[in-house]
Amino acid sequence: GNGAVLSGTINVSGGDVIDIMVGQQPTGPGAGFNGGGAGQASTNGNTNYDAMGGGGSTNVNVNGGSVAIAAGGGGAGGGSVPGSTWASNGGGDGGCATGSMGGNTYGDGGLGGTQTAGGAGGQPWAGVPPGGSPGSLGQGGLGGLWVTASGGGGGGGYYGGGGGGNDGCCTGANGGGGGGGGPVVAAAAVL
After folding, report:
1. What per-residue confidence (pLDDT) applies to 107?
2. Nearest to 47 by CA among 148, 175, 183, 188
3. Position 186 confidence tier, pLDDT thresholds 50, 70, 90
4. pLDDT value at position 174?
5. Handedness of CA 83, 85, 151, 25 (dihedral sign)
6. Cα(190)–Cα(123) distance, rounded to whole angstroms?
7. CB of 53 within 8 A of CB of 24?
8. pLDDT in tens, 120-174
9. How far is the C-alpha of 97 from the C-alpha of 171, rounded, in Å?
């Protein structure tokens, strides 16, 4: 999923220290820098079936205090190879008040994080554990593990999105759910 866009004006004075931590959009199952949740690598060694990690958030800090957080997007579930019937298991986008839910396939997408709570992890297909883990303060949830159809990682944010649920019966093109996106938070909610 796409990260959120945040624009505005931050008042600073001479001598203030401004620190911007830029979140990473991962290109594999690893977690994106600054709070993205990890996806899962395929357990059969075929990287085409890896579930993607969630993107990290971008934080703006002034004099050590956080004044804004732009959320990262969730990672795509595993099994979404080109031409797959289940290529709709993309990660959710980072949002304003709430990140969006990841795509549902054979495994539910993780829910987006809000400004007060992490998104719930996606339920696994047919109730076969583990399912996605929930997001938490500053951290996206871990995608559920399943052979070649794991869930994607949740996006980072003030509260991260949940990890996508895994498939529980099959391998190959049955993709796991996408990770949920995180929310954007501005100064008043963070300080």
Report:
1. 85
2. 148
3. low
4. 55
5. positive
6. 30
7. no
8. 999 998 888 999 999 999 999 999 998 888 899 999 988 999 999 998 887 655 5
9. 36
68 C-beta neighbours (distance < 10 Å), count: 22
Asked if omega into 129 is within 30° of 0 (cis), the reply is: no
Q: Token pair 């994106």 is at which residue?
A: 32
Q: What are phi and psi of 162, to 5 degrees?
A: -75, 150
Amino acid 150 reads S
Mean pLDDT on 95-119: 88
Quick check: helix, strand or coil at residue 61? strand
- Token representation of residue 175: 């993709």
Question: How many Cβ atoms from other residues are within 10 Å of residue 77's Cβ?
Answer: 48
Whether residue 8 contacts residue 2, with contact meaning beta carbons closer than 8 Å, is answered with no
